Amino acid sequence: MILYLFALVLLALLLAMAMPVAMKRHSIRWVFTGMILSFLGVVLPIFVFVMSGFLLPEWKGACPHGWIDCFIVGKLALTPMVLVAAAAWYRIEVLGITGPPPRWIVVSMVLGAVTADICLVFGLCSIGFSWWMVVPGYVAVWYSVRALQLVVTSEVGLAYCFGWLAGSLPFWLISGVWSKVTYESLPDKVPNGCFIVTAAGRGHRKCVGPFFEVEHNGRQLEANRQLLRFWYLEERWRKVSPRSHCQFRRVYNQFGPVLAARIKSPWLADATYMALKPAEYFAVLATGITRPDPMLPGRGKQKTV
Fold first, then answer.
1. Do 41 and 107 fall within a single domain?
2. Total number of domains in the chain
3. What string of pLDDT tens digits covers the 305 residues of the chain?
4. Is the pTM of this model over 0.90?
5. Domain edge (last residue) among 185, 207, 223
6. Are residues 171 and 145 in the same domain?
């Protein structure tokens, strides 16, 4: 229901953004063209800009560049500039401009290009090359090319643009402070929450057991064989490919608790446990686990309970 509502709101927003240009050009074709352009140049970039804040590293050890890696959240202080730049982009690319562009459009596009370029460089250095970087990539190129064209062809000089860039420094300072505060709030040790697998372990004990008393992260816990195998897979994954593991944990830490909260009954937990069996067998193959018991390296003494 929520997804349908979200889709309807998105469709209505894109339609509202496309109708002015369609009426201006007296062409139904521009309804679809305007919707596509509005989605690619305004809605999707803003969505990715905001949602990327949920890719915050899960602990300080996942920040090889220190507080700078938390700029993924601190950059949200640049939201006013991003919104103004998106409005300028919409005015140029969707509605169109006849004659010399207003100064606010030129300045906004320059600010948007600088912001997009810096966010792209940060993303490539912290997250690396991934599908998530496709949108920041084309946005940075599009904004930069258009901003350069406007500066060259318009009467607005570079000195005027540099003045506005200097005026944007408070936003960048706030983003830096925000990044540092966010970094200090991260835990010193890596959290190893397996939310969905843990929730699946709350099924009927005859189905999801046996259970073992284990020491994990300095605590005495009760875990079944499936959970132990996933723990071991994650340990190996973190050692072999820390970057890809970090990307996975960033996403999983946001959606895992939400999905786990929906597993409320023992029967649903049993079904989830069985649904995770293929992934569990993959973990066994990927890590080379050969023993049927969950006495895995690094877990300390285990005792069946």
1. yes
2. 2
3. 556 777 888 888 888 888 888 887 777 888 888 899 999 999 999 998 988 877 777 677 778 888 888 898 899 999 999 999 999 999 998 888 777 888 889 999 999 999 999 999 988 887 677 677 889 999 999 999 999 998 888 878 777 888 888 889 999 999 999 999 988 887 776 555 566 777 778 888 888 888 888 776 656 778 888 888 888 888 888 888 777 777 777 777 766 776 777 777 888 888 888 888 888 888 888 777 655 454 454 444 444 44
4. no
5. 185
6. yes
In the chain, the N- to C-terminal Cα span, in Å, equals: 42
Q: Do 52 and 123 sit in the same domain of this protein?
A: yes
Q: Which amino acid is at 35?
A: M
Q: Do residues 71 and 145 both lie within one domain?
A: yes
The range of the structural domain enclosing residue 17 comes to 11-185
